[in-house]
Specification:
single chain, D-isomer_2-hydroxyacid_DH, 5-stranded parallel beta sheet, binds NADPH dihydro-nicotinamide-adenine-dinucleotide phosphate, binds (2R)-2,3-dihydroxypropanoic acid, 12 helices, 328 residues, alpha/beta, NAD(P)-bd_dom_sf
């Protein structure tokens, strides 16, 4: 009998159990995993990738031309444990005929839920208020103290009315939002109809929104999209929320806008870099709430993402349709 040639799979982190188990069951693959909760060092990634047929990676692994060259011609599939694909050099990947799997939809609800939590925490100043209880700043019930901004009768502007943008709007609507605006590359009348959302330009969205929520993908066109000009057009009472990627925002400009009172507050689930250094100026601001990129972090969602990522990888390696393949 001819020996069966196993396909080599490299996994760049310890992943949730369902995905791990699916890979372990794959009799046609030899799976090597960076068995750690910490990021893989570059050297180990290069070593593991060399000669691999399949890669299961995270959004924190930068898959660039150099790494693809290192991997060599065996590499047929890249499966990322994320819906965002900005860490992948898609042009290079396409040139090499490599298939890409990703994890849309299964994390939409968890991420939208987190976005709403972040928005409410930011506009109603929850972290600041909790701190005041602990540090003795709460001296009496004071009519003027700890006031924030509410959603009722507000205008919410969404940058990127995609899967997550729509799921956020759906959750915000029952809070009494009066008007939804959105922007993107083109109008999406079908999706917008549910919220009677109006397609507007970036400047109009900045000028008219009480809340700005960023839920677009990071591309060359969206890098630095929210900059000084944008913040200057926003209302001084407006609240800015970003759950997309840190690079969509010019963080120096955001810092200036927050520190000078140009805008009221910001809530960020994503920053540049990640993790944000603990001495970063944004962390000195009371009107900035920062979370450590936990949009999809529920046990169920991460497990489902890991299973989908594993199934994408295995289907791609076997030449079958992937459950979620990125169109390149
Ligand atoms: P979708 O592809 O459904 O949505 C992406 C949106 O980006 C679309 O509405 C698209 O609008 C918009 N977009 C693309 N280019 C531009 C542009 N030039 N200007 C304005 N908008 C643009 O993806 P998802 O909703 O599933 O995910 C969105 C992003 O959220 C991911 O790419 C990821 O970066 C981030 N994310 C963050 C998470 C977290 O933990 N914080 C969790 C999950 C995702 P149009 O096509 O109309 O231009
Ligand atoms: C993604 O999937 O792109 C998120 O940032 C993490 O779930």
């Amino acid at each position: 009998m001819r020996p069966v040639r196993l396909m080599k799979v490299f996994v760049t982190r310890r992943i949730p159990p369902e995905g791990r188990a699916a890979l372990a069951r794959a009799a046609d693959c030899e799976v090597e995993e960076w068995d750690s909760d910490e990021p893989i060092p570059d050297k180990e990634l290069e070593r593991g990738m060399t000669g691999a047929h399949g890669l299961l990676c995270l959004l924190s692994d930068r898959v660039d031309k150099r790494l693809l060259d290192t991997a060599g011609a065996n590499l047929k599939v890249i499966s990322t444990l994320s819906v965002g694909v900005d860490h992948l050099a898609l042009d290079e990947i396409k040139k090499r005929g490599i298939r890409v799997g990703y994890t849309p939809d299964v994390l939409t609800d968890a991420t939208a839920e987190l976005a709403v939590s972040l928005l409410l925490s930011t506009c109603r100043r929850l972290p600041e208020a909790i701190e005041e209880v602990k540090n003795g700043g709460w001296t009496s019930w004071n009519p003027m103290w700890m006031c924030g901004y509410g959603l009722s009768q507000s205008t919410v502007g969404i940058i990127g009315l995609g899967r997550i943008g729509q799921a956020i709007a759906r959750r915000l609507k029952p809070f009494g939002v009066q008007r939804f605006l959105y922007t993107g590359r083109q109008p999406r009348p079908q999706e917008a109809a549910e919220f009677q959302a109006e397609f507007v330009s970036m400047p109009q969205l900045a000028v008219e929104s009480d809340f700005v929520v960023v839920s677009c993908s990071l591309t060359p066109a969206t890098k630095g999209l929210c900059n000084k000009d944008f913040f200057q057009q926003m209302k001084t009472t407006a609240v800015f929320v970003n759950i997309s990627r840190g690079d969509v925002v010019n963080q120096d400009d955001l810092y200036q806008a927050l520190a000078s009172g140009r805008i009221a507050a910001a809530g960020l689930d994503v920053t540049t870099p990640e993790p944000l250094p603990t001495d970063h100026p944004l962390l000195t601001l009371k009107n900035c709430v920062i979370l450590p990129h936990i949009g999809s972090a529920t046990h169920r969602t991460r497990n489902t993402m890991s299973l989908l990522a594993a199934n994408n990888l295995l289907a791609g390696l076997r030449g079958e349709p992937m459950p979620s393949e990125l169109k390149l």
